[in-house]
Amino acid sequence: MGPDVLVPLSFFGMVAVICVGVPLARAYAKRMAQGIDPKILPNDLVDRLTRMEQAIDSVALEVERISEGQRFTTRLLSERAPESIRANAAGSAPANPPLRAPGSGDAR
Questions:
Q1: What's the CA gap between 84 and 86, in Å, rounded?
Q2: Each residue's pLDDT tens digit, 15-55
């Protein structure tokens, strides 16, 4: 890179830094002059964040309940499956008989 490329690139880089940096410096100076502490939040924002935190906690609790129900159902189904497999392999009646006898209902 020669000086014929480096000078225009540095110029446009400095213009970009000035365009972004000057408004940021002014905003920071204005905030310091007003004495506003950025760590202090307005009361309505604190209330809103508190409500959001409570809502997130309740959603997390419900998701945990759903997952426990799913684990329970999965365990019941996994314990029940070997019984029906063993009953069918032995040639006996299935563990869960059909609700209607074959041929006693409406034909489809």
A1: 5
A2: 888 888 888 889 888 888 877 665 777 888 889 999 999 99
Distances (CA, A) of 5 to 1, 11, 14, 17, 70: 6, 10, 15, 19, 65
Token couple for 50: 């508190």
Would the CA dihedral through 72, 77, 83, 86 be positive or negative?
negative
Question: Residue for token digits 């945990």?
Answer: 64
Token pair in block for residue 33: 């002059």
Give phi and psi for 22, each to the nearest 5. -65, -50
Segment 58-80, tens digit of pLDDT: 999 999 999 999 999 999 888 87
State which amino acid sits at residue 79. E
Q: Rounding to the nearest 10 degrees, give the CA dihedral for residues 55, 60, 64, 70.
A: 90
Report in angstroms the alpha-carbon separations of 82 from 23, 39, 75: 72, 61, 12
